[in-house]
Amino acid sequence: MTEKADVAVVGLAVMGANLALNLADMGNLVAVHNRTTEVTDRFMADEGAEKGILAAESLEELVGMLSTPRVVLLMVKAGDAVDLLIASLSDYLEDGDIIIDGGNSLYQDTERRQTLVEDRGLLYLGMGISGGEEGARRGPSIMPGGSPAAWAHVEPMLKGIAARAPDGSPCAEWMGPGGAGHFVKMVHNGIEYGDMQVIAEAYDLMSRGMGMPASEIARVFAEWNEGRLRSYLIEITSQILEAYEDDTPLVELILDAAGQKGTGKWTVITSMELGEPTTLVSEAVYARIVSSDPDRRKQASLLFDDGVGKIESVTTDDIEQALYASKIISYAQGFRLLDSASRDNGWDLDLGTIASIWRAGCIIRAEFLEDIAAAYRNEPELADIAEDGFFSSALHDAQEAWRRVVAAAVIAGIPVPAYSSALAYFDGNRSERLPANLIQAQRDYFGAHTFERVDRPRGEFFHHDWI
Q1: Of 111, 118, 133, 185, which is the active-site residue?
Q2: Of residues 59, 61, 68, the one with CA closest to residue 90
Q3: Please, what is the end-to-end C-alpha distance for the chain in angstroms?
Q4: Residue-wise pLDDT tens digits, 309-357
């Protein structure tokens, strides 16, 4: 009798193919299927066959290869393709079988799909996976949510293929019910947008503002990667800046128009719905949108041809301080969003655990996350990581340099939307009094929206006859 496979992977693009190989490396018998059979054939001719992986030409054949309860990991593009695949698979699966969506699905879609699948007697996981091509192959960070019974069955398998944090623990843990896993991955990606933007602003300040060549900037990033900014993104930035084509830095030959796939935008929209200010991620998303039309920017540069000045009285150490402080604000906002969504949806997210599983495998992996995990170990109910002693001290120490960098950039005409928005949020958050009293007066004047008073208890509302 032919041995039954432990897990099936549907979708053999880069992530799906590498996860299938990773699963096989960890001792699982894997079956695979791709809608386009040529893709399956190439995969099997490459590494698939030598890893003992089984190939199926149809979903029905694939399901027949699996041991029960059957586990099917979907690695297809988020959206309608997932719904169509679930509908097709459901014809062949039986009660207790497990469907896992490993793509970047919107968390509300995951909650809807879980209800649909469970109504059919099946189990469902919406699982965030981060680490890119290399992470999928060698060990990603894994964020599952959905049916608890499904996690109980696949936990050993998924922890087996996950990255290992510095203390040896697997970077895979249960996030919570419903769309919790995909929500956590969405916020991870939003923070990733922010990290990339604060790094890009540092590069721009050193390049255009200080006139440093790419090779010198690469050395600065390499030095930063030996300190508190040690991270995957800082490391690859240094490597990128060292790449040359003939005598020209390759980065200077790349069109300055950044793309995006939607998770950053989803993070911003969700933060607005929950009333949480993820201002740095918002600016990172909008910065990509501004960059995406270089022809229009070129016309504007001719119209407003005032050039870019050199930034004065700023050092690379100052820029490091501004980057680090802005990064603290970005993560503080991201974790506040996670906490708000957890309370709103009843997910009971463990913020310390989330920081822990982001320490390795994922794109935002960094030394920094060890400090966040430690902050939540010290105070599990911490409302804002910026209020933790370690981070509040760092923000105090960074203020002077942070303000100097933002001011110098503004004077020179170099946009630093992440640094400046993070600083504005910091200043707003620490202000005992803000001008929102005037806004409330205006709202009451033109719309009778009422206002509260400083000399009366909260919750009492008043209207004034302004005319």
Answers
A1: 185
A2: 59
A3: 89
A4: 889 889 999 999 999 999 999 999 999 999 999 999 999 999 999 999 9
Give the C-alpha separation, 112 to 122, whole Å: 14
178, 366, 343: which is closest to 276 by C-alpha?
A: 343
User: pLDDT per residue over 43-87, tens digit each?
Assistant: 999 988 889 999 999 999 999 999 999 999 999 998 999 999 999
C-alpha to C-alpha distance for 362 and 131, rounded to whole angstroms? 4
The phi, psi pair for 164, rounded to 5°, reads -110, 130
Q: Which amino acid is at 68?
A: T
**Which of 31, 127, 24 has the alpha carbon at shortest distance from 70?**
31
Is 57 annotated in the active site? no
Q: Of 192, 201, 283, 320, which is the active-site residue?
A: 192
Torsion of CA 95, 101, 106, 107, to 10 degrees: 50
Q: Judge contact between 329 and 197, C-beta under 8 A.
A: no
3-state secondary structure of 73: strand
The pLDDT value recorded for residue 108 is 95
Radius of gyration of the chain (CA): 25
Q: With a threshold of 0.90, does the pTM exceed it?
A: yes
At residue 135, what is the residue type? G
User: 192 an active-site residue?
Assistant: yes
Instruction: Give the position of tokens 């902050």.
Output: 375
**Residues of the chain where predicted confidence (pLDDT) is lower than 50:** 1
The two tokens of residue 228 are 């508190």
DSSP code of residue 339: H
DSSP annotation string for 396-420: HHHHHHHHHHHHHHHHHT---HHHH
> What letter represents residue 422's amino acid?
A
**Half-sphere exposure for 279 (CA within 13 Å, toward CB):** 17
Contact 440, 433 (CB under 8 A): no
